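Fig. S4 source data, part A: sequence.
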Amino acid sequence: MVSKRSGNIRRRYTSAYFLYLERTRVTKLWIDDLLIGTQNSLCTPYIYEVSSALTPGKHTLTICVDNTNYPTKGGHLTSENTQTNWNGITGKIELRFFNKQLFKNIMLFL
């Protein structure tokens, strides 16, 4: 499955942009013709940092969801015979904007 969307970015009060994808399989993300990255985990949402690629102006985001060669044998959660063997993105798709004061890696020691 490939999905493309275009839109304009107006940079004002934000400096960190993230694309948030919830409940999906293996994804690849392009902005315009630049490959941003690939993620593969069923446990957590995919969060792509896209700040450097989203300059002011018009951009096209392309998301490719790849279900080929996905291990579905033997597990009851991803079986060919259940509804949990989905295609595409079944959760949220959000472009998130944050101010310069962004905490990326917080560690707490008790």
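Fig. S4 source data, part B ends here. The chain has no helices and seven strands.
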